[in-house]
Amino acid sequence: MKAVVLRAPGDIGVEEVADPAIHDDGDAIVAVRATAICGADLFPFHGLTPGFEPGTVLGHEFAGEVVAIGPGVLKVRPGQRVVNTSMISDGTCPSCLEGRITQCEGRSLFGYSGVYPRLDGGQAELVRVPQADRALRPLPDEVSDEAAVFLADILPTGYGAVVRGGVEGGETVVVVGCGPVGLMAVLCAADVAGRTIAVDGVPARRELAELLGAEAVSPEQAADRVAEATGGLGADVVIEAAGSQAGLDAALRLARGRGTVSVVGAHFEPDFPLDNGLMFERELTLRFTIGDPAQHGELLLARLAAGSLDPTPVVTHRLRLADAAEAYRLFDTRVATKVLLTP
Questions:
Q1: Cβ atoms of 92 and 40 closer than 8 Å
Q2: What angle do CA 88, 315, 118 make, to 5 degrees?
Q3: How many angstroms separate the CA atoms of 285 and 161, rounded?
Q4: pLDDT per residue over 115-169, tens digit each?
Q5: CA 270 to chain centre
Q6: Degrees (nearest 5) of the Cα angle 223, 211, 163?
Q7: What is the pLDDT of residues 121-135, one digit of tens each?
Q8: Fewer CB within 10 Å of terminal CB in the chain, N or C?
């Protein structure tokens, strides 16, 4: 089969690799119909993932059709359309048993190796899915493959940032960073917030944020717009989706006293210079979220099926799997906001 592999940092290839096979009773094989590039794919692309193995098949967002199952699979069947959860979990460790799926002791992320046990991903014609009953969700006819791909990761991630931020209705919410995850946070926040302000330095992303229901401003305009919107108090909830030190620092300064900063951008800095004086004076709450497709996927799938939520406007580029190298270039340079690949 053809698959997108990372040969070395910065070197994406589409290669012929062996078809995946059933290894364990709980495995399924999925024929991929749509797959996406995520910001997390750029970490190994830039050589920032320790121990990442050359030749790993990339991609943790995919939807397709089940073509084979192991004898232990009970919840999906061949011929059924499905979407994956980006991370597999064992269901038996203490974290899983207490509902903290993202903290599973046996977790692996599709399309990753090194920091997790290697699990080849879904930017391919076929993919092996371990723990299929936990990792695959059947799709109704009302939900397209393109919309379903968002359920694998970034839609539950954006939604999780809103939920863990405590957005319940009527608040002023600021989203700092309007990449794909930030735009999903905008989509989910705009449903319930009294006012949603999106902050990004890329004009095309600001346009998408406005399409999804936010007021969009540049980083230079953010402080004044938030002050104007709140009578100088600051935002009730600030969602930081930029994944940068500057973004997190800005988020902390845009929050009101006793406000919440809900961080969903990926941060790995061991020495972030947190302004403790600011945090203490304003009594701020700081929360970090990975996103949990297992917990929130069913609720969000129901909303997709009902037509009350549509993430597909953020797809800016659709390319063939064979054009993956160009797709990564467009995504990495921010020419593309969200890229879908079709085998």
A1: no
A2: 25
A3: 13
A4: 999 999 999 999 999 999 999 999 999 999 999 999 999 999 999 999 999 999 9
A5: 22
A6: 65
A7: 999 999 999 999 999
A8: N
